[in-house]
Structure formats: structure tokens, C-alpha cells
Predict the structure.
Amino acid sequence: MELILTLVSGVAWTLVYAEAIRVGLRDRTYAMPVAALALNLAWEATYAVVDLRGGLSAQGVVDVVWCAADLVIVSTYLRYGRAELPAFVTRPVFAAWSALVFATGFAVQWLFLAHFGAHDASRYAAFLQNLLMSGLFLALYTARRGPRGQSLLIATAKWPGTLAPTVLFGAMEGSGFILGLGALCSVFDLAYIGVLAAGRRRAGAEGGEEVRSRPDPSR
């Protein structure tokens, strides 16, 4: 059962990342909130090393695949992200801000690792940043006034991608803390699915695609 749930999570999150890459390139933007992206990249890079240091494992291989996908999403953020920001954010300011955000992602992961140890840190950090991501996806939809850089596949794959480890680490391992965080993730994930589905239905009723507002690409 542990292997099955690990593979469900691995496949679902791989779909999220692949779709985020596709949609980001299509809409010329980044398809994952940047704070969550920084934490994800740092988590996957850190625990790919931790998991594979003791030998080949399913989770270690999954971490490497996710890390590689995250690097592609980071490239879309670096390429298109400045256009999402106000005009006074110059290229040097954007570069400095981006460096700070991604460095902070690694610092947070390493602080968790130093304080809790690999077993607990990998779980606590993963579920906390998943909860953050679930909320930030809703905020992204609001900030962009529509689904630009988002898709229903991202939303629907993210839910079981988080639900499977919630069952594994929360229910099967008996962690009420993780079970609670995972349940909150499901609440936000289902809300996000509902928002995207409602937007699609509205667009269908109006006989056209839901509006994807675009930033000024000339900046």
C-alpha cells in the first residue's frame, strides 16, 4: 500500500508539473505561485539527495523527476515573471528579489531539516508548503482575474497528489498533525477546482473562452 500511494502521489504531481510547464509556455507566464515554487524546488532538491544517499528508492527517483520539472517551471518564471509586476520593478530588482525568494526556500527547508531531522522535516515542510500552495493558487486566480497560467488539470491532479500522502503519513502512520494539514489542503484544492470549473461553465454559457488577462510583455 505504501508503494501504491507513493506512486499515486508521484504520478499526480508529475502531471501537475508537466501541465504547469505546458500552460506556462502557452500563456507566456509561470503556472505556479513563486513562493510555493521556491519551497518546492528546495524541498525536492534537498530530499532527492537525502533519499538517494541511502540507496535507490521510489521516493528518491520521484524527487529527482519533480526537481527537474521544477527547474523548467523556474525558467518560465525567470523569463516571464517580471511582466507580472509593476513597472517600477526593474530587471536588477527582479533578479535580486528572485534570488532572495529562492534562497529563502532553501534556507527554510534546511532549518526544518536541522531542527526536526529528515523523517519529520520532510513531512512537516511538505504539508505546510502544500497548504500554502493551495491557498496561493486561489490568490493567483484572483490576481490574474481569470485562469491565465492555470488549468483544471493542474487543480484536479494536485488534489490526489496531496491526498495520497495524507492517507499514508496522516492516517496510516497515525499523525494527527499531518492528517489535519492534508484535510485543509483538500478543502482549498476542492475550492480551486470549483473556481476553475465555474469559470469554464460561465465561459461556455457565454459562448467563448474565459478571459485570460495578460500583462504588458514590453516591460
